[in-house]
């Protein structure tokens, strides 16, 4: 299959991923924690799709592969929960607390971003490298471009979902709870984890243990981010 055909096929998969997210957006209650994160992630994926169409990535084929592999991990977690199967540990706090009345929309959004960046992104890089028969270094430029979109979006999410000045009794503990977490640092850690997993690929038992510990650590952080706050 030629590169042009491969790109077309991968862009079709980006479109299918967007359709899945839009269907979730239409089906879920607005206040559901997965719905809150899904709206955020849908905006990111639409922005990536627009940049792919505009030729803004150095290697559109690689960027599309990374985008799809990344999204598939989130959607697989949602499917697992819907089917009564165990989702990865990083997603379990959001799935368990998604309807808790004491958890604010900003907490839901950032807990989802934490799970997706802190765990899924590293594994998606490895998945994309296997698909493309390349090394992580070959994806670094497009990884950074997608990461820049995520960082910009995180700033907008905080602005849009942070309670206003009339709700300082909520905003103060929320600021304390979430202020120490940084998407930029999480993205850097994800890149290091991806490189480590790639280096460990010939030691599958060690790689699996590393991935499990990463999953558990990200899940623990997500549980803290979803601490219910007083009204």
Coarse morphology:
globular
User: What would you call the structural class?
Assistant: mainly alpha
| N-to-C CA distance | 57 Å
In N-to-C order, the SSE pattern is: HHHHHHHHH
Low-confidence stretches: none
Indicate the percent of residues in helices. Answer: over 70%
SS field, number of helical segments? 9
Can you give a write-up of this model?
By secondary structure, the chain is mainly alpha-helical. The protein has helices spanning 3-27, 33-53, 60-82, 92-97, 105-132, 136-161, 168-178, 183-199, 204-225. α5 packs parallel to α8 and α6 runs antiparallel to α8 (183-199). The termini are far apart.
Task: Provide a quick synopsis of the model.
By secondary structure, the protein is mainly α.
Strand and helix map with partners:
Elements: H1 3-27, H2 33-53, H3 60-82, H4 92-97, H5 105-132, H6 136-161, H7 168-178, H8 183-199, H9 204-225
Helix pairs in contact: 1-2, 1-3, 2-3, 2-5, 2-6, 3-5, 3-6, 5-6, 5-8, 5-9, 6-8, 8-9
């Amino acid at each position: 299959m030629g590169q042009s055909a491969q790109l077309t096929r991968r862009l079709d998969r980006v479109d299918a991923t967007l359709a899945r997210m839009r269907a979730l957006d239409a089906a879920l209650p607005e206040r559901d924690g997965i719905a809150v994160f899904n709206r955020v992630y849908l905006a990111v994926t639409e922005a990536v799709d627009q940049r792919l169409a505009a030729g803004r990535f150095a290697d559109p084929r690689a960027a599309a592969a990374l985008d799809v592999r990344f999204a598939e991990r989130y959607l697989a977690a949602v499917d697992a929960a819907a089917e009564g199967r165990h989702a990865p540990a990083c997603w379990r706090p959001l799935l368990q607390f998604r309807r808790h009345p004491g958890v604010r929309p900003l907490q839901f959004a950032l807990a989802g971003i934490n799970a997706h960046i802190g765990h899924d992104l590293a594994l998606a890089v490895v998945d994309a490298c296997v698909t493309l028969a390349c090394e992580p270094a070959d994806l670094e430029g497009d990884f950074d471009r997608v990461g820049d979109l995520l960082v910009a979006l995180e700033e907008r999410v905080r602005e849009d979902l942070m309670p206003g000045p009339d709700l300082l009794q909520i905003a103060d503990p929320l600021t304390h709870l979430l202020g120490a977490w940084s998407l930029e640092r999480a993205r850097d850690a994800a890149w290091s984890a991806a490189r480590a997993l790639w280096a460990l690929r010939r030691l599958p038992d060690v790689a699996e243990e590393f991935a499990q510990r990463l999953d558990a650590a990200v899940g623990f952080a997500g549980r803290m981010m979803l601490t219910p706050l007083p009204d």
